[in-house]
Specification:
about 280 residues, mainly alpha, 8 helices, about 0% strand
């Protein structure tokens, strides 16, 4: 039974919570082993799930970490586990190295993707609780945060048996309500023209576009030209910003934007980034 009070009160921002930040030094290189990838513009080679990347060293560090982009592994530079790696390694499995036991390895690799989804939800819920317009549903958001945090503390078996789709659905309904409450505050917002949820905007010319309060949840913005665009208070949860040009764009006040999304995009010194995130080094 869940406690009535969160075990860990929500910090001021998700970025301020060390439990939601990747700590590779406390992880057994799970993202380099558990997850598959296919040869593409993001990855130089194919790799099956559960197969260690050829660049993974014995100390669980990446052998080409400083050259990932140059060596064709840009996909690695934009991945974020939201702290799930160290949680699985040090908490769920108590610091037990997957290399020591094949049975443990298989179970750990199954748990990692589930934990990552839970931690991603914790990130969004924590951010939602910092948004004043969402005050009417803060109670529901806190309960969802507490429940999600409770789930992350489950055993390996409990985590692999979790109905993740159902839990995500419940949380997403709250995040949608949060989004509507926040975006409704945008003066002059025309809902019929601003709802671009899941839209195919690959390579779209959106230079200097007024996208304040736009619903861009899950939109495909790959290689879109967003130079000088106004994305304040836009909902960017799940938006694919790979190679999108954000030069001069204003992202302050955008909601549910993650560091991984920024890292996947292009920008420059004039791009305005939310204070909780950092300007990618490659811009």
């Amino acid at each position: 039974m869940l406690s009535e009070k969160p075990e860990h009160p929500a910090p001021a921002t998700a970025a301020a919570d060390p439990n939601l930040r990747s700590d590779c030094g406390s992880c057994f290189g799970l993202c380099c082993v558990a997850l598959p990838f296919a040869a593409s513009a993001d990855f130089a080679t194919d790799k099956d799930a559960g197969q260690p990347c050829t660049n993974l060293r014995a100390d669980f560090r990446c052998g080409i970490h400083t050259q990932l982009r140059q060596r064709g592994f840009s996909g690695c530079t934009v991945f974020d586990c939201f702290g799930a790696g160290q949680k699985v390694s040090q908490v769920t499995f108590g610091g037990q190295d997957w290399r020591r036991d094949q049975g443990t390895a298989r179970q750990m690799f199954d748990v990692f993707p589930v934990m990552r989804q839970l931690h991603e939800l914790l990130w969004y819920l924590t951010e939602a609780l910092t948004l004043p317009p969402a005050l009417p549903i803060h109670g529901e958001l806190r309960r969802a945060l507490d429940k999600t945090e409770h789930l992350t503390g489950g055993s390996a078996q409990e985590l692999t048996e979790l109905d993740m789709a159902a839990h995500r659905g419940d949380v997403n309904a709250l995040l949608l309500r949060t989004s509507e409450l926040v975006r409704a505050k945008v003066t002059g917002r025309k809902k019929d023209k601003k709802d671009r949820r899941g839209a195919d905007l690959i390579g779209a010319d959106l230079r200097a576009a007024d996208l304040r309060g736009a619903n861009l949840r899950g939109a495909y913005l790959i290689a879109a030209d967003l130079k000088g665009a106004d994305l304040r208070t836009a909902d960017l949860i799940g938006a694919d910003l790979r190679d999108a040009d954000l030069s001069g764009a204003d992202l302050t006040g955008s909601i549910f934007l993650t560091q991984a999304q920024l890292n996947a995009a292009k920008g420059d010194s004039s791009t305005k980034v939310p204070p909780a995130l950092v300007r990618p080094a490659h811009w």
